[in-house]
Amino acid sequence: MDINTKKAKKNAWRITKERGIGASRIRVPGGYLNADVLGMVQEIAKEYGNGYVHLTTRQGFEIEGIHLEDMEAVNQKLQPIIELVETNQAEMNREKGYEASGTRNIQACIGNNVCPFANYNTAELARKIDKEIFPNDLHFKIACTGCSNDCAKARMHDFGIIGMTMPQYDAARCVSCQACIKGCNSLSVGALRIENYRIERDTQKCIGCGVCVTKCPTRAWTRSKKKYYKLSIMGRTGKKNPRLGQDFLVWADEENIIKIIKNTYKFVEEYISPDAPARKEHIGYIIDRVGFEKFKEYALKGVEFLPETIVKECVYWDGIHYC
């Protein structure tokens, strides 16, 4: 059997350790999908695979045990899934599966669809970002998490988007029970205090987590209508120098975060190592080689920040300050 493995990998197929057997990988941005997809995945797994499906760490599906000679047939079966999930696909590539595999599935926690702590709809933002960046062969990893609890492990990604809220205080509803202060002290950063029976928030200390909102029994604290985000950059796992991402923007808006991510694709296109196998090189390695200033020059091009947005001038990695 003659299989072009490079082509198969680009088509989002995994080449397994068993000769002639592969696995089909299915994108689910934000890990949120119509339940009808589950039946379609089951059908492919039973008809072409070994009857097993792996739920990947990136919240997609991997259908195991497929003979690579059945790739074309399986790609045709994937078409309704691609359409239901609304993955970008050129008309000419219909029924040919995925057009790229470099940019990984965007992870997300459950978000404010369910979680009382989440500050935004994580799956919705994951899908919006996916529309902007996929298909692409460049190796990017992105995660959306609803609050500073970081259930999606956003700080282990090239880009981690952490939900924030600007807490709104209505003194007329406050009964000075101090539940918000106790919550902030025990679960967050201790940014609240009471003065003359009124709660005061230290704006320099507050991280916008929303704990005060969840603890208030009278709704004296509420979330801001405007959504805010913290953007963490260049976290990574891997064999060489794993590290946590560092804050780059605080109190940012969705539009500019997406713009920075798209700008970073241009930065990587320009500076990725010509020796990178399959154009796969961690963005953090590129920044280490080219310099943080050059990254900022690309990333911030055309970005107009909110008045409250804080741009970090330095990041701290591996014992070194990059300024």
Report what the structure shows:
The chain is α+β, with helices and mostly antiparallel strands and 323 residues long. 29% of the residues lie in helices and 20% in strands. It is built from nine helices and 16 strands. The strands form five sheets. The chain has a six-stranded mixed beta sheet with strand order 5-6-7-12-13-14, covered by helices on one side.
What does this entry show, briefly?
The chain has 323 residues and is of the alpha+beta class.
* Span between termini: 53 Å
Q: Give the oligomeric state of the chains in this entry, treating copies of one chain as homo and distinct chains as hetero.
A: single chain
Strand order of the largest sheet: 5-6-7-12-13-14
Gyration radius, to the nearest Å?
22 Å
Shape: globular
Strand content: 15-25%
Number of strands: 16
Question: How many helical elements?
Answer: 9
Helices and strands, in order, run as HEEHEEHEHEEEHEEHEEEHHHEEE
User: Which residues sit in consecutive blocks of at least 5 with pLDDT less than 50?
Assistant: none
Compute the average pLDDT: 93
Specify the biggest β-sheet: 6 strands, mixed
Short key terms for the protein model shown above:
323 residues, four-stranded antiparallel beta sheet, alpha+beta, 9 helices
Question: Topology, pairings included?
Answer:
Elements: H1 5-10, E1 13-15, E2 21-26, H2 36-47, E3 53-55, E4 61-67, H3 71-85, E5 107-108, H4 122-133, E6 142-145, E7 159-164, E8 168-169, H5 179-187, E9 192-195, E10 198-201, H6 211-215, E11 221-222, E12 228-233, E13 246-252, H7 254-271, H8 283-290, H9 292-299, E14 310-311, E15 315-317, E16 320-322
Parallel strand pairs: 5-6, 6-7
Antiparallel strand pairs: 1-2, 2-4, 3-4, 7-12, 8-11, 9-10, 12-13, 13-14, 15-16
Helix pairs in contact: 2-3, 4-7
